[in-house]
Amino acid sequence: xxxxxxxxxxxxxxxxxxxxxxxxxxxxxxxxxxxxxxxxxxxxxxxxxxxxxxxxxxxxxxxxxxxxxxxxxxxxxxxxxxxxxxxxxxxxxxxxxxxxxxxxxxxxxxxxxxxxxxxxxxxxxxxxxxxxxxxxxxxxxxxxxxxxxxxxxxxxxxxxxxxxxxxxxxxxxxxxxxxxxxxxxxxxxxxxxxxxxxxxxxxxxxxxxxxxxxxxxxxxxxxxxxxxxxxxxxxxxxxxxxxxxxxxxxxxxxxxxxxxxxxxxxxxxxxxxxxxxxxxxxxxxxxxxxxxxxxxxxxxxxxxxxxxxxxxxxxxxxxxxxxxxxxxxxxxxxxxxxxxxxxxxxxxxxxxxxxxxxxxxxxxxxxxxxxxxxxxxxxxxxxxxxxxxxxxxxxxxxxxxxxxxxxxxxxx
Length: 412
Description:
The protein is mainly alpha-helical. The protein has 15 helices and no strands.
């Protein structure tokens, strides 16, 4: 358990850069004269880089070992994060450098999941829940750092301090992996990366899990990209000044991410007890209800918005650990890296598009000048719900397949 906590702490430190952009987004829109679709595109660039990274490191982990790839990509994450923090000075440079940061950040995710699956043979749902919860904790820490640094050193200071955290993650990860062997799963002669991928595609239950995760990622990554800006807009509408509103939005969003920490552990633990597909369906339907309702609530008291955001974040992230455990239980260990790679392309591909689509709807709503804020934000948030609707359908189909008896010891 101590090893898992240390390894999860490394994941939290690596994850702080994920929220660096969304924390200061309202300030940069003003300073760099960006509209909403450009701001969303920068966040999407991170997701595109991240999905490429995850796709690559999954295959590299199968071929060279998860431990080795984890450490090498950790070094790249440190360097790229500092480059973004120090050199980004406009839309184009931010687009390229934050995309590069995402490209170098996947090594603490996919190889980390494979290492935990290797080390934790029992109660994998809970173990993976802790690891994914650590990422949510890292997102919260990143937002809290940004909210503290904005009044002191502006958005540049927020970037620099959050970019120093992956170095701590690399040190913690190296220490945790000192006694962990670098395992490479051998394949029969003539089987390469293409064969690994084909084995995953032919595995229908695993593909249903992957599709369910992909639609889940559309909703979740859009939520994480735009929640700080939404709460900042709500604070401005309530009379808070611009810079203070941005700092407040980041701080309140960080509090909702702390709920997401509990959500990851809770989802994984409940799925161990009550079944993978049952808990995935419950959590995904609850988060979809929030997606369709949340934006229309702007103008309500801030404590109401924060309470709903806490529930939204908890339910939206709760099935992340379940999806990861489900895929582990449905996939041959020799092809697990390839399965995570394919899932990453589809999931983070969807998650790369959703913040941009969200921003497009915001710009469209504001361009006419006649729509009230609650309609504009309501339509924008509803795009996340529309993209996530097919997720529960895929999981329901998985639940009805005989292979679902392999999940959670037969609890489906």
